[in-house]
Amino acid sequence: MGQRVLVVDDEAAIVELVSYNLTREGFDVLVSADGAQAVQMARRESPDLVILDVMLPSMSGLDVCRQLRRETEIPIILLTARKDEMDRVLGLELGADDYVTKPFSPRELVARVKAILRRSRGREDDASDHQINRTGLTVDPDRREASLDGKTLHLTFTEFELLHILAKNPGRAFTRDDLLMRVWGQDFFGDARTVDVHVRHLREKLMEDLQTPRFIETVRGVGYRFRES
Q1: Residues linked to residue 78 through DSSP beta bridges, in sequence order
Q2: pLDDT tens digits for 108-162?
Q3: Are 139 and 170 in contact (CB under 8 A)?
Q4: For the chain, is the Cβ count within 10 Å smaller at the N or the C terminus?
Q5: Residue among 205, 198, 204, 206 at smallest CA distance from 224
Q6: Any bridge partners for residue 146, and if so which?
Q7: How many whole angstroms separate alpha carbon 8 and alpha carbon 31?
Q8: Dihedral of CA 146/221/192/130: which sign?
Q9: At residue 194, what are phi and psi to the nearest 5 degrees?
Q10: Which residues, including other chains, have CB under 8 Å from residue 21's CB and lie 6 or more apart?
Q11: What secondary structure does DSSP assign to the chain, as a single string?
Q12: Phi, psi (5° rounding) for residue 127?
């Protein structure tokens, strides 16, 4: 059985288009036209990824995203109208991993799905991906778990990837473009604000003092780096 993708949209033509292209690529597709139903399906079916339209009846896509993020780390791709920049930013704030604007290319959407799922399978062939311990922070890429001072950090998939890249390269300054390429991949067409939003979320979960950060420092004019011990 192929990896399962839940497609949530109330426009039948879009659901048909997306489902057809995903099925052609070997994915098993689940569909929902209603936000509240989509949350129940995600709980019951545990899909590998969710494609989620922002505009839905009864429960908006943003509310669905918020609810799913309280319960799961399933990767989420938002479908937004081209004009709704605020929806895209808010979606990232709520924990979405990526977004695609309408009208969109089905080929582009499938590429985004594949890129995220490739990342979600991990990198078992990378010998350097051993457990990382930095001043109270533990990052375990094999188990995809992180903890701070003995307490589990509840990170989204993308937040974990970002933390892992930074923590295993202490002292190295990464530009936002570097991080976009390493974490989101070359198929991602977002901008630097995507990195900033996820770094902000990560800092909140790490309980960082921005004046004297314990872990992630801003490198003015460049990007970010993980503090050396």
Answers
A1: 52, 99
A2: 899 889 888 877 665 444 444 678 998 899 999 878 889 999 999 988 878 888 9
A3: no
A4: N
A5: 198
A6: 139
A7: 6
A8: negative
A9: -60, -45
A10: 106, 107, 109, 110
A11: -PPEEEEE-S-HHHHHHHHHHHHHTT-EEEEES-HHHHHHHHHHH--SEEEEES--SSS-HHHHHHHHHHH----EEEEEETT-HHHHHHHHHTT-SEEEEES--HHHHHHHHHHHHHHHT--TT-TT---EEETTEEEETTTTEEEETTEE----HHHHHHHHHHHTSTT--EEHHHHIIIII-TT----HHHHHHHHHHHHHHTT--SSS-SSEEEETTTEEEEPP-
A12: -65, -20
pLDDT of 187 over the 70 cut: no
Residues 6+ apart with CB under 8 A from 126: none
Query: Token digits for 132?
Result: 């990382």
Give the model confidence (pLDDT) of 200-224 as tens digits.
989 999 999 888 889 999 999 899 9
Tell me how far apart the alpha carbons of residues 49 and 27 are, in angstroms, rounded to a whole number: 11
**Lookup: tokens for 185:** 């991949």
* Token output for 72: 């799961």
C-alpha 15/C-alpha 12 separation (Å) is: 5
Q: How confident is the model at residue 84 (pLDDT cuts 50, 70, 90)?
A: low
Sequence-separated (6 or more) residues with CB below 8 Å from residue 213: 203, 227
Inter-axis angle of helices 61-71 and 85-93, nearest 10: 10
Angle at 23 between CA 25 and CA 57, to 5 degrees: 130
Residue (of 156, 178, 198) closest to 70 by Cα position: 156
Amino acid at 95: G
